[in-house]
């Protein structure tokens, strides 16, 4: 159920669902300052990683940005599994005066309802990294 798609159009887009903003962890080694402080909404992909015990990682343009906390990953994991292991979300950059990146993840209830309407999705191709 985990993998990579080369085209965002093939991934479920959950940007219209109710969301909450959560911090992306581990970005200090992966994202430079210009990317952190750019303006506007960003397109991010949430992806389950089997090697990380099902933790959710955050990607932009195919590049790893960081990961979600264990608590947030655990809440999103069942719905992500049901939709094929990955979904498109909005990134919101940094908060004023900060360097930590934030991502808008769907609320658990909204994502569960969305996933239930999609049924079992076709898994994405295996992730080679």
What does this protein structure show overall?
The protein has helices spanning 33-36, 70-82, 108-118; strands spanning 19-23, 42-49, 55-60, 63-67, 86-94, 101-106. By secondary structure, it is α+β, with helices and mostly antiparallel strands. A six-stranded antiparallel beta sheet has the order 1-6-5-2-3-4. A hairpin with a 2-residue loop joins β3 (55-60) and β4. It is globular, with a radius of gyration of 14 Å.
List keywords for this structure.
6 strands; disordered N terminus; globular; 129 residues; 30% strand; alpha+beta; disordered C terminus
Poorly predicted runs are 1-5, 125-129
Indicate the radius of gyration in whole angstroms: 14 Å
Q: How confident is the prediction overall: mean pLDDT?
A: 80
What oligomeric state best describes the polypeptide chains here?
Answer: single chain
What structural class do the secondary elements suggest?
A: alpha+beta
SSE succession: EHEEEHEEH
CA distance, first residue to last residue: 15 Å
Q: How is the biggest beta sheet arranged?
A: 6 strands, antiparallel
Number of strands: 6
Shape: globular
Count of alpha and pi helical runs: 3
Instruction: Assess the beta-strand content as a share of residues.
Output: 25-35%
Strand order of the largest sheet: 1-6-5-2-3-4
Percentage of residues in helical conformation: 10-25%
